[in-house]
Specification:
The structure holds two protein chains of two kinds.
Chain A: H1 3-28, H2 32-49, H3 59-73, H4 76-81, H5 92-95, H6 105-120, H7 123-133, H8 138-145, H9 149-172
Helix pairs in contact in A: 1-2, 1-3, 1-7, 2-3, 6-9, 7-9, 8-9
Chain B: H1 5-13, H2 23-26, H3 28-64, H4 71-94, H5 107-147, H6 153-201
Helix pairs in contact in B: 4-5, 5-6
The chains are: A mainly alpha, B mainly alpha.
């Protein structure tokens, strides 16, 4: 893929998927600077793998695959031993411009409670519930994670129960 | 909460980059420029590494080979150079790099891949490095046979012992630091990835709070 073509594909992918990717980052990391850092890492991996997109899968599933796998491997200790250090500043400047849309107060509260409870889940459950909240099917989630759709279904049901319990507790606080 | 629809709506309604400082309008072109530059730089770095290795090999051949005095020195030097080259190749290959991970595979495959790469560093310092130091010792002592041929027996013994002790001390310090770092930095990451892998593979979740 020529560089100019790559650039235009990246812009399109970025525009269409930035919110989805950033929501995933915020679900995984409660502090914003780390979420920004993860977002930047995902965008670098998307850029680096754009040539490999063949169109067999939906672009959103493809992006999510990169986002989830980058999130799994996103670790400060790993970062320390990779040669990626020189790339870390790329998105920093822009990260400060992130703004979440302001909805109404009740929704904001609900969102905060949801996020707080998601942060209490373990990593695998956070991955699965985030994908589910994005509206992905069990098949797509299974494809991304590498487990069967039935297995995803079992996990989603368990996570729902856990999350419901956590939300109830949080709302009663 | 049995259905996620209410929360999905809230979840999906969260948008970012809104407001007057539109990220796409103002920042993306700048970022794309940087990413493109990064890609070109990576290509240059790889080219530089390849040329550096070629130049070192050529210099070695041109400067050192004509000065080799006898077969002992030639043998010793060959052992040192071959073992150093092999160790360096193994060292470079073992370096963890996100670029080596097949990020487009399923998460389970990616985790397995990452653990394998991290374990390679352990193998390098527990197996390859001791072997490399042993070969260095052998090579060094073979060179000494030729280098100190004219000295007395006791002097030669001292040179052999001193040279060997020096290499061994370097080995002990090097291996201790590496093993400590592995235990402190990499082992927890490997453990975390293995836990995630077993959680994903298991039919149950352990998060029933």
């Amino acid at each position: 893929m020529a560089l100019s073509e790559k650039e235009s594909v990246f812009r399109k992918v970025y525009e269409e998927n930035k919110d989805m990717v950033y929501r995933l980052c915020l679900a995984f990391l409660s502090d914003k600077p780390s979420a920004d850092d993860l977002f930047q890492e995902i965008m670098i991996n998307i850029w680096n793998n754009l040539d490999k997109f063949r169109g067999e899968a939906k672009i959103s599933t493809w992006i999510y695959r990169i986002a989830v796998n980058t999130t799994i491997l996103f670790n400060k200790k790993i970062k320390k031993i990779t040669s990626r250090e020189y790339k870390t500043e790329i998105f920093q400047e822009s990260a400060n411009d992130y703004k979440e849309s302001v909805s109404n107060e009740e929704e904001d509260k609900k969102y905060e409670v949801l996020m707080k409870c998601i942060h209490q889940l373990d990593k695998q459950n956070r991955i699965i519930i985030t994908l589910r909240l994005e509206g992905m099917s069990y098949e797509d989630i299974g494809d991304i994670v590498g487990i069967t759709p039935n297995h995803v279904g079992v996990k989603v049901n368990r996570i729902k129960l856990t999350l419901a319990k956590l939300i109830k507790e949080a709302e009663n606080e | 909460m049995n259905e996620l629809s209410d929360y999905r709506e809230i979840w999906l309604s969260r948008k970012i980059y809104e407001g007057p400082e539109n990220f796409l309008e103002n920042k993306l072109p700048h970022l794309v420029q940087k990413l493109k530059k990064l890609e070109k730089n990576q290509y240059r770095i790889n080219l530089f590494k390849t040329f550096s290795v070629l130049i070192i090999l050529l210099l070695f051949g041109w400067l050192l080979v004509p000065k080799i005095a006898d077969k002992f020195m030639a043998l010793g030097l060959s052992i040192i150079i071959i073992s150093t080259t092999l160790f360096l190749i193994l060292y470079w290959r073992s370096q963890f790099s996100m670029d080596k991970i097949r990020i487009l595979n399923s998460s389970i495959e990616v985790i397995k891949d990452a653990v394998k790469q991290l374990q390679m560093q352990k193998r390098l310092f527990y197996i390859h490095f001791p072997l490399f130091v042993f070969l260095m010792l052998v090579g060094l002592n073979i060179i000494y046979i030729s280098l100190f041929e004219a000295d007395t027996f006791s002097d030669r013994v001292i040179y052999h012992v001193m040279g060997s002790v020096f290499v061994l001390l370097g080995f002990i310090v090097g291996i201790s630091v590496r093993r400590y770092r592995f235990k402190k930095e990499l082992q927890p990451v490997i453990d975390e990835l293995n836990t995630l892998l077993s959680d994903l593979n298991s039919g149950t979740t352990n998060n029933m709070l």
